[in-house]
Each structure stands twice: as structure tokens, then as C-alpha cells.
Amino acid sequence: EERDRIARELHDGIIQSLYAVGLNLEAAWEQLEEDPSETRERIAFSMEKLNEAIRDIRQYITNLRSPIDENRTLQEALAALAAEFRAGFGVAVTVEARGETATRVRPDVLNHLKQITRESLTNAVRHGRASRIRIVVDVSGERVELTVQDDGTGFQMSEAMPLTGNGLRNMRQRAQLLGGELEVTSAPGRGTRVWVAVPRDMAGGSSRA
Ligand SMILES: Nc1ncnc2c1ncn2[C@@H]1O[C@H](COP(=O)(O)OP(=O)(O)OP(=O)(O)O)[C@@H](O)[C@H]1O
Ligand SMILES: [Mg+2]
């Protein structure tokens, strides 16, 4: 059904625009000598249509991307994140999955855990200058546990926690929103570990699928 929808939209939108471009360029080619001004107009129209097609495709990709995440397992989402950081920062990021990792978790659980991981990775690279980061995810029974451990500089927790940015606070809030808990463990020279445990389906949550 989703494939049908994608095929339909590509066909009705983008292919039609490109088709129109083709027709107009062909006509322009034929009128090149006898009607230069008409030719110019057709080429202008073609350029406009092409830009339109590019815009459509861009938007289409954006729309495709976000809902896709909901169809991902937690492990897949984290693997994508790890790949992004490996490519972007040249840091060695590994993902180790344990338990029922092929099972989907609720979309909001997936999203919050993803954002917590993203912030942990960013902090590890930005502040810790880590060279290796290990992500461990464990989906078992009613719980999802996630650990992000880096080998960076670490920090003195008591002083950093209250005075700086939003990252750690947001992480904790996300864990709380899910009815879970989050712990940050760090010391100078010993790296940093972010550990979070949340219920897989909160009471009242509707996910049975
Ligand atoms: N992995 C890490 N390695 C070293 N230091 C860290 C790490 N994570 C956090 N810190 C320290 O804790 C501080 C608070 O982190 P937090 O993410 O809350 O804020 P921030 O990264 O400074 O700013 P923001 O996240 O709002 O952009 C950091 O400024 C840094 O000193
Ligand atoms: Mg931060």
C-alpha cells in the first residue's frame, strides 16, 4: 500500500513535470532557427519546471524520512545515528544490541531514546573529544535499557551539571516523560557514561503491535 502510494506520487507529480520539460525542450529544438523568442520562452519554462521538480523531490524525501523512523527498530535507528557520527566526526561508534531488539518500541520511546543518544554522542565528541563510543541497547520484557559510554576526557560532575547547557537536562526530562530514569556517570580522565532505562510501554500506552 505504501509502495503504491510512492509509485503514484512519483508518477503523477515528478514524472509529469519531467515529461513536460522533455516536450518543451524538443519543441524548442525544432523552433531554434525560425522562432528564437518562442525558443527562449520554452527553455525558460523548462527551467522553471525543472526547479519545480527538484523542489517536489526534496519535499518528497523529507516527508518520506520522518515517518520511516516509526517503522524502524530501535537498533536500526541507533545504527543510523552511529553511522552519521562515524561519517561526520571520524569517531568509532559501535552499537551492541541485546534482547528482543528486532521488536519495535513505541514511536515516542524510539524518538526520545534517539534524541538522548544523539545528545550523548554530541557531548562525547564536542566536550570529551572521545575517539571511541559504545552504545549498548537492551530490550527485554517491559524495559528498554540504553548505555552510551565514551572514552573521552570525562568531567567533574558536581561542577558541570548545574551550570551549563540544556543537553543533560533535556535528556533527563525525556527519560522522565517516558516514566524512566537516567544516570550520568563521569570523572576527569575516565570517560562518560549515560545510562537510561525506560518502560517499553508505559501504563496507558496503547501499543500492542
Ligand atoms: N561526554 C562528555 N564528555 C565530557 N564532558 C561532558 C560530556 N557530557 C557532558 N559534559 C560536560 O557537561 C556539561 C553539560 O553538558 P550539556 O549537554 O548539559 O550542555 P552543553 O553540551 O554544554 O550545552 P548544550 O547541550 O546545551 O549544547 C558540558 O558543558 C561538559 O562540560
Ligand atoms: Mg550538550
SSE layout:
Layout lengths: L1 H30 L4 H35 L3 H16 L2 E8 L7 H20 L5 E9 L2 E8 L6 H7 L3 H11 L3 E6 L5 E8 L10
Parallel strand pairs: 1-2
Antiparallel strand pairs: 2-3, 3-5, 4-5
The structure holds adenosine-5'-triphosphate (ATP) and magnesium ion.
User: Roughly how many Å is the radius of gyration?
Assistant: 25 Å
Uncertain runs are 203-209
Shape: elongated
Output the CATH homologous superfamily of the largest domain.
Histidine kinase-like ATPase, C-terminal domain
Largest sheet: 5 strands, mixed
The CATH class of the largest domain is Alpha Beta
Count of β-strands = 5
Helix and strand succession? HHHEHEEHHEE
Compute the number of helices.
Answer: 6
CATH architecture of the largest domain: 2-Layer Sandwich
Helix content: 55-70%
**Separation of termini?**
19 Å
CATH topology group of the largest domain: Heat Shock Protein 90
Largest sheet, spatial ordering of strands: 1-2-3-5-4
Ligand kinds = adenosine-5'-triphosphate, magnesium ion
**What amount of the residues lies in strands?**
15-25%
Give the tally of structural domains: 2
Structural class: alpha+beta
What do the pLDDT scores average to?
Answer: 85
